[in-house]
Amino acid sequence: MTEDIERASRAELRELQSKRLQRTVRHAYENVPRYREKLEEASVSPEDVETIDDVRELPFTTKADFRAEYPDGLFAVDDEEIRRIHASSGTTGKPKIVAYTADDLEVWNEVMARSMRAAGIDSNDTVQNAYGYGLFTGGLGFHGGAEALGANVVPTSSGNTQRQIELARDLGSDAIGCTPSYALYLAETAEEMGVDPRELPISTVLYGAETCTEPMREEIETRLDATGIENYGLSELIGPGVAVECHEAQDGLHIWEDHFYPEVIDPETGEPLPEGEEGELVLTSLSKEALPVLRYRTGDMTTLTYEECACGRTMARMDGVTGRADDLLIVRGVNLYPSQIEDVVLEFDAVEPQYRIDLHREGNLDRLDLTVELAEEFDGDRDELREDVLVRLESALSFTPDELEFVEYGSIERTEVGKVKRVYDHR
Ligand code: DLL
């Protein structure tokens, strides 16, 4: 069943989504006062929801709703039905608390097992799970998925990098789950230990939780001699397991649309955008019990396509996330995301995939300083390199940083636990 649904016709999928949307809206309306108020304000009652297209009539849910209802005001079931709590990994303010019933956990395990299967992992594989265990959804989300798949899971959690490498080698880990920045750190640490990272048994890196550009993926794949498969998810919807690339095509992330209904909207106007146009991803949960979410504004910028994939899966695909709407930089009238800078800079072999962006305010103007690490073997002319990078940034993005500094290999701090930070806003 679970594999059939991945290749169901769009008509079958629509029917299932329509039924599940009806149930979700009714459940939210009846059990969450805030949803009831918002639906009434928008003059929508559960009976108005007939097909999945009616999702567009629903009001958005935002991070502000989570904040206002902290910790459990959005929960739609009684305490005794809740089996697990997690929290989002936000660094400022109160975390978003999320809850799961027994059925929610089962769905989560299933979508994670599906994601791993799509990544080319099977029940004979050993999966090393270097996502952090704890309130963060990465650790236990991957763990449950690997178990449901029947794989052997090694719960290393994050950090302790030398031991991760020894264990990967000694236990023959076929796959590793971790953030993209950590995958690179792992390769670097192996080299420092005198272990050739390409000789490690890892053949799949299931990376996610952070933005990863194409040149960054290539670095991961080359340095570890492995296939890099991106996965996407967020605590508010379930955790990891919302979308994943298939190993057959590695061409966009299949969204598990029987559980999470995607739209892309113009972040300014809130209007849905046509297929292929970039905007903010909005997700509606279609089966969640403990915490149903209606049209959640993820803040993540991406595009959607409904073209059938070479792998035969029929579910919509999203592009890798360009960045969060909040990360948009506006520098002298040019709008851009840090990932666009990464995309250009990492084209150069002379640099490492390690950089930082510092934002300052000077008078009324914003100032952006870019610091990039040089490759270990670099012995060329820095001024020439600077000129080349600046010309390339200008032609690709119509943008140049106020300052571009190159620093020695190893001088930008690595992130061993949690999500990497690339932008430092001093304004
Ligand atoms: O990061 C869930 C997760 C764990 C996904 C492990 C993948 C792997 P949160 O801590 O709630 O949940 O953070 C969610 O992280 O809204 C995105 O901004 C970002 N994010 C997640 N996956 C990707 C990705 C987990 N593949 C927030 N690319 C999301 C870019 C991502 N950003």
TrEMBL record:
<dbReference type="Pfam" id="PF00501">
    <property type="entry name" value="AMP-binding"/>
</dbReference>
<keyword id="KW-0436">Ligase</keyword>
<comment type="subunit">
    <text>Monomer.</text>
</comment>
<dbReference type="InterPro" id="IPR051414">
    <property type="entry name" value="Adenylate-forming_Reductase"/>
</dbReference>
<dbReference type="InterPro" id="IPR042099">
    <property type="entry name" value="ANL_N_sf"/>
</dbReference>
<feature type="domain" description="AMP-dependent ligase C-terminal">
    <location>
        <begin position="333"/>
        <end position="427"/>
    </location>
</feature>
<protein>
    <submittedName>
        <fullName>Phenylacetate--CoA ligase PaaK</fullName>
        <ecNumber>6.2.1.30</ecNumber>
    </submittedName>
</protein>
<dbReference type="Pfam" id="PF14535">
    <property type="entry name" value="AMP-binding_C_2"/>
</dbReference>
<comment type="pathway">
    <text>Aromatic compound metabolism.</text>
</comment>
<dbReference type="InterPro" id="IPR000873">
    <property type="entry name" value="AMP-dep_synth/lig_dom"/>
</dbReference>
<dbReference type="GO" id="GO:0047475">
    <property type="term" value="F:phenylacetate-CoA ligase activity"/>
</dbReference>
<dbReference type="InterPro" id="IPR028154">
    <property type="entry name" value="AMP-dep_Lig_C"/>
</dbReference>
<dbReference type="GO" id="GO:0000166">
    <property type="term" value="F:nucleotide binding"/>
</dbReference>
<dbReference type="GO" id="GO:0032787">
    <property type="term" value="P:monocarboxylic acid metabolic process"/>
</dbReference>
<dbReference type="GO" id="GO:0042537">
    <property type="term" value="P:benzene-containing compound metabolic process"/>
</dbReference>
<dbReference type="InterPro" id="IPR011880">
    <property type="entry name" value="PA_CoA_ligase"/>
</dbReference>
<feature type="domain" description="AMP-dependent synthetase/ligase">
    <location>
        <begin position="51"/>
        <end position="283"/>
    </location>
</feature>
<dbReference type="InterPro" id="IPR045851">
    <property type="entry name" value="AMP-bd_C_sf"/>
</dbReference>
<keyword id="KW-0547">Nucleotide-binding</keyword>
